[in-house]
Structure prediction request, 99 residues.
Amino acid sequence: MPKCQACGEQWSWFGALKVSFKRLTGKKCATCGEIQYPTYRDIKVGMVGILIIMTLILLRTTFDISSVTTVTSGLLLAAIFILIIPYSVQLSNKHEPLW
Prediction:
């Protein structure tokens, strides 16, 4: 789980999940109130997850895979991705731009 860069407090699983979706605004630490942002590496990991799901959709049209298989595997990948995100998030005191 990530730790606040200001006070060192370890965040909960749900707090880490929330901050991973608040890339631009960040999230306040529950202990010290300092705003924490996900790092640039975390943003890239999120983009890779979206690309994997998009690739699955493209494979469906290319290889004539059934819609049920595509939706089921897409939902399964999304669920796994959401479960793993909080364990891989790293926090930063400042917002890092993408470029």
Observations:
- The chain has a mean pLDDT of 81.
- Helices lie at 13-21, 40-63, 67-88.
- Residues 13-92 form one domain.
